[in-house]
Amino acid sequence: MEWIVLICIGLFAGTLGSLVGLGGGVIVVPALIYFGTYTGWLENITPQTAVGTSLLVMIFTGLSSTLAYLKHKTVDYKSGLIFFAGAGPGSIIGAWVNKYLNMEDFNLYFGIFMIVMAVILMVRDKLKPIETFKNASFQREFTDPSGNTFHYGYPPVIGAMIALLVGFTSGLFGIGGGSLMVPAMILVFLFPPHVAVATSMFMVFLSALVSSGTHVALGNVKWLYALALIPGAWFGAKIGSFVNTKLESKVLVKVLRIILIFIGLRLIYQSITG
């Protein structure tokens, strides 16, 4: 029974994560903690093993969705590598900090972070893009399949610094980091939304390689659970990337906001009640 549950979790996380550029860890981590700690279906789940296992799965989610987005030529490689220059070290630091959190502290911090992500998703469509970096030294150009050309730019140092924070939260919470990076790319650096999501998943793939490697070294990966999660996450990522290129994801983003708030409040409650 637990294998069916894990496959379904992976499928849902991969689809949702790829669709909006989150990476899927926002579903995998709380699901592992819930089924491991509060139902007993999964054994020996701690904040460390939940995060380490999630990040290993994020490698395959990120790779699958990146390969799918490559076919539509929406991945900005150069920007993804610049962001990874900050996200890579940040994810290692986050992975090491994670080992000092007990279940109550992790639930509290992760719950607060989930609600913050929900608020970001709630207001990002209402915020106007900032023109500060429009004429930055590093300029990019993208032409979509319809022939529309977009121009955007940013200072690479600032991009890497933002990605450092994103990488830290990825290594700490096992979430992939796209929840912060996608709004930053769209609102601050003026990325076209589809390019932001695709490039975010490319960065998620690279940073998950680094942070999961750290968690593997620390013994934080439940390999059997990861093997059950990966197939669902792989195919889910393909589904999410396909849907992303075909229609607006506003309805699913609204659903995701509700899910994040519910999970966040539940984690905070569990932290307080022990």
UniProtKB/TrEMBL annotation:
Membrane topology: Multi-pass membrane protein
Presence of the UniProt keyword Membrane in the record: yes
Protein name listed in UniProt: Probable membrane transporter protein
Record carries keyword Transmembrane: yes
One cellular component term from this protein's GO annotations in UniProt: plasma membrane
Main location: membrane
Coiled coil: none
Subcellular location: Cell membrane; Membrane
Keywords: Cell membrane, Membrane, Transmembrane, Transmembrane helix
TM region(s), chain numbering: 7-37, 49-69, 81-100, 106-123, 157-178, 184-211, 223-245, 251-269
Sequence similarity: Belongs to the 4-toluene sulfonate uptake permease (TSUP) (TC 2.A.102) family.
Stored Pfam families: TauE
